[in-house]
């Protein structure tokens, strides 16, 4: 089953973990959180695709990042 989210009205926020030098640019939109989903995209390609996560999965991911569960090289 495929679900399509219309993201035209999305307000995007760049991750504080994204670098200012143009690398690792991730944006997310809290616009649809009340409906249970959080879209995520590459800010270098805003017209490109977005991956839409359930809010519970997104919250778990953000928590893991904050607690250092994904060490950087």
Principal-axes geometry comes out as flat
The largest sheet, given as strand count, sense and whether it forms a barrel, is: 4 strands, antiparallel
> What is the helix content?
10-25%
Q: How does the helix and strand content classify structurally?
A: alpha+beta
C-alpha Rg (nearest Å): 13 Å
Number of discrete helical segments: 1
The pLDDT mean sits at: 84
Weakly predicted, low-confidence segments: none
Q: List SSEs in N-to-C order.
A: EEEEH
Q: Got a strand count?
A: 4
Head-to-tail CA distance between termini: 37 Å
Tally the structural domains. 1
Beta content comes to 15-25%
Kindly report the spatial arrangement of strands forming the biggest sheet.
1-2-3-4
Task: Explain the overall architecture.
With 73 residues, the chain is of the alpha+beta class. The protein has one domain. The chain has 1 helix and 4 strands. It has one helix at 55-66; strands spanning 13-14, 26-28, 37-42, 50-54. A 4-stranded antiparallel sheet has the order 1-2-3-4. Strand 2 (26-28) and strand 3 form a beta hairpin. The termini are far apart. The mean pLDDT is 84. Residues 10-66 form the DUF397 domain. It comes from Streptomyces cuspidosporus. This is DUF397 domain-containing protein. Pfam families: DUF397 (PF04149). InterPro entries: DUF397.
